[in-house]
């Protein structure tokens, strides 16, 4: 076959300007027909011009021109057409021959293949039956597995073994559901599997909700138990420190008497629980503490299996956060002093549980979330404590809450929670606590002093002696006295000692376990305030307002001497409780803090004794100042004073320490000396002679002898110091009896023999001895030369002293 020729677009040839328009239209029409263009414009133009015949003529002309072309084409391809027809005829004969051959071959094939087809049909039928049987067996096996898994899932569900039930359901869904031949069973399973999972989720959520309710009670008990164990551990540490202090004291007193011993202590874990308890606790079981995390871990595991872990973690955190917020509520109907232990124990138990969940919960809660909860709790606890502390007006209440807060800090610090903010709150209220404590002690001391009758204590039994004397180290001897025992102090001393000791222990208790390792200086500062401001002020007030008579004044002075020993005990006791060596406390000790009260008591006693002495010294007016003879036995006033002083010493030495007695006697003797000099200086004595001075000399010797006789009670040095209290009267008498009174003008002699004399007093008194009466110096009548010499010397002394004045 010849291939068709492609049509080419005919473009009308350009005509010369001489061609006619008719020829041009014919060419255009021919070109349009050849190109297959629309002939509408030509038709409209022909009718528009009124020449349709011309268009018909052109179309006929074009048709004739194409007929000739067709004839040319047919003529050119005629031979090929004839040859093609001949080929078709030849092919037709070959096809007939092939058809007959195929028919023969088919007949032969049918005759041979018929038995084989029969066998093949039988084989195909048998194979289909085998496939159906195999499919049935597989379906039965699948159904058997399904039934077994369903039965197992129901068994686990009935036993609340939800995890195994979920594993069975997952196996059904993953392995059997797609292979299930029964569409009915498949639809049933597709409906029941989500319902089973929803049922398990509801059951587990209910168990978890029950656990949330139960864990609040468990947390409170757990917190109380943990804080109680911290308190017991603190008590054991305190007992160990007491033993260490006793050993140090023995070592300080005698190294050879030290006794060493090994002590075994129960080793508890960092969590404060025994090994058995910690085992159950770590595994989430109940253990001995009733601390069961199994429902929580079970719920977490089930939600993990259900693919809802993130939702459950969020649900757990939000519920625990709500519980913690609820725990922060402080009832306004119950005093915080009664509810603070429950409040703090609840929070402690909460975070003990969260610590265990964090470490064993498999990512149920993150460390960051626990830290955020703890920061919230610390902030709330600090605000509650700040508010409650600001309202408290009783030191004991503040101390009780502080102790429990510090135990809470110790307990939770074992679990890694920072408690510095809580300790800062306690430190911030340290001054307020001590001010309240000082106020309480001020009231107690005032009551103790008001109840004291300033009488010596009478102790019948040894336990009374131990309670009132030995417990404050007030004893002067290590030997146990005979009973009944009369103490040298009144009930004020042990009562105030107990108050001060309680103050020290409360102060140390407040400062201890607060994050501050060395707090002795703080305790000592407030102890100084208690002694110097409170106790000293109260004693001073009692001395100035309530002490009447020598007996009470003497008892108060005796009490102050005992208080001096008690103060040593106070500072040592504070040092021991603060855990510092005694040598450091002794090194930093200041002077006796009750000096004002002590000086006032001694001054009161001395003043009352001086009043008594002044009553006897009024007898000095009976002295014969112009006596003709020397009085050998002393003047009357001197004998009365000596009797009074001896009686005083015999009474005072029973209760007054020798140092106090010495100071009082020294003050009294000094007063007597001043009164003797004052009598000579006074206007009532116009003149006196040497006999009168010699009588005064006898009086002063009697007083000096009294002072020397106190050497058996005091030491020789103290007796000599006591004797120096009479130095002014002694030096004045020596000067008046001296043969060379002008030696007073010699600086060396004056410093050695007359250093206590005031030259103005010497002038005034010497002028009275320089009387113009004939009886003046009459006793020296047989010694005229000496009289003249002494008189001249005395006149010279008076003149020189007047010149100096």
Automatic annotation (TrEMBL):
Q: Where is this region: Disordered?
A: 1-21
The record's comment on protein family reads: Belongs to the SEC15 family.
Designated name of the protein? Exocyst complex component
Check the record and name the InterPro entries matching this protein. EXOC6/Sec15, EXOC6/Sec15_C, EXOC6/Sec15_C_dom1, EXOC6_Sec15_N, EXOC6PINT-1/Sec15/Tip20_C_dom2
Q: Where is the composition biased (Basic residues)?
A: 1-10
Any transmembrane segments, and where?
A: none
Q: Does the keyword Transport apply?
A: yes
């Amino acid at each position: 076959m010849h291939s068709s020729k492609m049509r080419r677009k005919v473009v009308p040839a350009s005509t010369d300007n001489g061609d006619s328009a008719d020829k041009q239209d014919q060419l255009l029409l021919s070109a349009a027909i050849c190109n297959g263009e629309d002939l509408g414009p030509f038709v409209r133009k022909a009718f528009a011009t009124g020449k349709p015949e011309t268009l018909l003529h052109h179309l006929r002309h074009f048709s004739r021109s194409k007929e000739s072309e067709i004839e040319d084409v047919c003529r050119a391809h005629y031979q090929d057409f004839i040859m093609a027809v001949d080929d078709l005829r030849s092919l037709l004969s070959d096809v007939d021959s092939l058809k007959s051959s195929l028919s023969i071959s088919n007949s032969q094939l049918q005759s041979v293949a018929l038995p084989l087809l029969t066998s093949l049909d039988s084989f195909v039928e048998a194979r289909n039956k085998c496939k159906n049987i195999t499919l049935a067996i597989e379906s039965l096996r699948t159904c058997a597995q399904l039934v077994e898994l369903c039965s197992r899932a129901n068994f686990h569900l009935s036993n609340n073994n939800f995890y195994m039930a979920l594993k069975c359901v997952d196996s059904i869904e993953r392995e059997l559901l797609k292979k299930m031949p029964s569409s009915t069973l498949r639809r049933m399973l597709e409906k029941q599997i989500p319902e089973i999972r929803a049922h398990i989720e509801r059951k587990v959520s209910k168990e978890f909700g029950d656990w949330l309710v139960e864990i609040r009670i468990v947390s409170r008990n757990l917190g109380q138990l943990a804080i109680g164990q911290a308190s017991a551990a603190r008590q054991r540490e305190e007992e160990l420190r007491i033993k260490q202090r006793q050993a140090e004291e023995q070592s300080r007193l005698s190294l050879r008497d030290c006794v060493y011993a090994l002590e075994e202590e129960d080793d508890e874990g960092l969590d404060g629980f025994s090994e058995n308890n910690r085992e159950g606790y770590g595994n989430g079981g109940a253990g001995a503490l009733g601390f069961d995390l199994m429902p929580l871990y079970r719920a977490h595991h089930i939600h993990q299996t259900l693919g809802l872990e993130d939702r459950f973690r969020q649900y757990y955190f939000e519920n625990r956060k709500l519980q913690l917020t609820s725990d922060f509520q402080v009832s306004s109907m119950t005093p915080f002093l009664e509810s603070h232990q429950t409040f703090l124990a609840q929070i402690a138990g909460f975070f003990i549980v969260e610590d265990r969940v964090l470490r064993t919960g498999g990512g149920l809660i993150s460390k960051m979330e626990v830290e955020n909860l703890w920061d919230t709790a610390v902030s709330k606890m600090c605000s509650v404590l700040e508010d409650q502390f600001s309202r408290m007006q009783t030191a004991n209440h503040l101390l009780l809450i502080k102790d429990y807060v510090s135990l809470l800090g110790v307990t939770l610090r074992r679990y890694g929670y920072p408690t510095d903010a809580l300790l800062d709150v306690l430190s911030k209220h340290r001054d307020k606590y001590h001010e309240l404590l000082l106020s309480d002690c001020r009231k107690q001391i005032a009551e103790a002093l008001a109840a004291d009758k300033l009488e010596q204590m009478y102790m019948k039994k040894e336990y009374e002696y131990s309670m009132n004397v030995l417990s404050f180290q007030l004893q002067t001897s290590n030997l146990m006295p005979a009973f009944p025992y009369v103490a040298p102090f009144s009930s004020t001393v042990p009562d105030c000692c107990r108050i001060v000791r309680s103050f020290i222990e409360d102060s140390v208790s407040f400062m201890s376990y607060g994050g501050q390792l060395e707090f002795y200086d703080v305790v000592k500062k407030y102890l100084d305030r208690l002694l110097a401001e409170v106790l000293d002020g109260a004693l001073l007030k009692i001395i100035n307002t309530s002490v009447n008579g020598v007996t009470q004044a003497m008892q108060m002075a005796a009490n102050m001497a005992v208080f001096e020993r008690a103060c040593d005990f106070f500072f040592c006791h504070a040092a021991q409780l603060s855990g510092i060596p005694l040598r450091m406390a002794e090194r930093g000790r200041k002077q006796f803090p009750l000096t004002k009260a002590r000086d006032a008591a001694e001054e009161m006693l001395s003043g009352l004794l001086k009043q008594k002495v002044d009553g006897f010294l009024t007898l000095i007016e009976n002295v014969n100042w112009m006596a003709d003879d020397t009085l050998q036995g002393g003047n009357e006033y001197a004998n009365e004073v000596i009797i009074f002083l001896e009686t005083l010493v015999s009474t005072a030495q029973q209760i007054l320490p020798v140092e106090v007695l010495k100071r009082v006697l020294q003050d009294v003797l000094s007063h007597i000396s001043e009164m003797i000099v004052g009598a000579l200086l006074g206007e009532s004595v116009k003149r006196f002679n040497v006999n009168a001075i010699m009588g005064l000399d006898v009086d002063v010797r009697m007083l000096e002898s009294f002072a020397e006789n106190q050497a058996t009670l005091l030491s020789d040095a103290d007796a000599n110091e006591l004797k120096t209290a009479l130095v002014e009267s002694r030096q004045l008498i020596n000067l008046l009896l001296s043969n060379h009174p002008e030696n007073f003008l010699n600086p060396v002699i004056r410093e050695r023999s007359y250093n206590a004399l005031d030259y103005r007093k010497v002038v005034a008194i010497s002028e009275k001895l320089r009387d113009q009466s004939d009886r003046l110096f009459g006793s020296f009548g047989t010694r005229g030369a000496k009289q003249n010499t002494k008189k001249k010397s005395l006149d010279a002394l008076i003149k020189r002293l007047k010149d100096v004045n």
